[in-house]
Amino acid sequence: MSHSPSERPKVPTITVGLRPHPSSPDAAVAGSGPVGRLLATMYAAPEGGAVFEFRLDDSRIDRLVVPAPQPSVAADGLWQHTCFEVFLGVPGEPTYREYNFSPSGQWAVYAFQGWRQRVDGFAAEQAPEIQCAHDAGSLVLEARVPAGLLPAVPPGTDLQVSLAAVIERKDGQLEYWAVRHAPAQPDFHARDTFVLTLATATRSQP
Fold this sequence. Notes:
By secondary structure, the chain is an all-beta fold.
């Protein structure tokens, strides 16, 4: 399902570790919760679009709520359960998009004109491809986002990125993971957390 590093296209990839928000259960004691390590990898697909992979390793999957497989359709409220999220912003503009990928195969794409100001009437005209597999100690989700779902930017423009996850535990608590967190309450929409760069534009070769 997921490409190994040796099988991935010869394009720049970024792999980062996500960390829990300080308000998340067990955040103060590393390794005490059911999630051992959460890594995220992203790269621009040569045919256009982008690929995002989220990987839970050294984890106790039996202590998590993993949504059961469902038809791969758009659905709201996925963030209320275990869900992996991507935020893409346009540099210098307040606009951004939010992508939700559930282990169930369901997904959501939202467009915003500013902080939590959703664009009325926006509807995704294409669908991402989601694959997910897990065993007792790990879970891997891969989402392939077609170019038509990315924010429209001029050639040579990179996108600002935040990678995040909501992890639901069987004790009913939610953990919030991200590359960078807002200081107070968890807020994946905070623009200063969009600290990564995705180079999606085609550049002429020297």
